[in-house]
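@channel sequence for tomorrow's demo:
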Amino acid sequence: MYRLVIQAPELATQALKQLARLSGAQSIEAIDQQAFKLHAAEIDNLEAVADFCESNQLDFAFIPEDLSVRDIGLVVMDMDSTLITIECIDEIADMIGIKAQVAAITAAAMRGELDFNASLTQRVALLAGLDESALERVFTERLQLMPGAEKMLAGFHAAGAQTLLISGGFTFFTDKLKTQLGLTRTIANVLEIENGKLTGRIVGDIVNAERKRAELIAMRDELGLRHEQVVAMGDGANDLLMLNAAGFGVACHAKPKVQAEAPYKINYVGLDGVLNYFK
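structure tokens (generated this afternoon):
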């Protein structure tokens, strides 16, 4: 038995009633003004529900009726354009006037059109010679959390879940976010810095799609969790392996390839929409 979670900035009563009919749901219950759950919904009608929601710009998810937020033990997140609104490397590049060049490579890599390792190596090389103070400027002047991020994290943390922020970005930013948000663990790439300047190289192995998947599985097993107790969120092609390794892999305002292949997706509400799945 499933509940159908429907979310959008504005939800018309008529749309909810139509979705109840399409899904065979027995009752409608409000989570908040932007989210409702339709109880005893039939997942057999997934395609009709998906078509209606796409046409009406609604986010939806079929969630097992007996699952609650306290059943979730691990929440895994990408950083750039998922937990935060920016791509840090693009903003770093802007400090030396090459944002457009770097952003084009970033976008292609996130769409899955370029090899992630090669594209990151190429982008970081373009930053050689930049003063490390540029990293602090990006953090203080440009980095913002995605809407709903703090509410989402507070809800999962309060229910006892551990959190892993794993990024193809850089430890300079994940370390600060770990402290700011009380995250359990963070993993990212290390920018090499010599004499206060970026060398254009990364120290150690690159955090790519395979590494993201492996770290999710390792932390899940370390915590003794089942597959369905893990939530993962991401937006780029390098997140897909991670999303598919989680019980609930959510494409958050994601690239088309990710939206097409991820088990769940959120396009119209904030990250707290993921928490609403389990309320």
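heads up for whoever presents: The CA atoms of residues 148 and 272 lie 5 Å apart.
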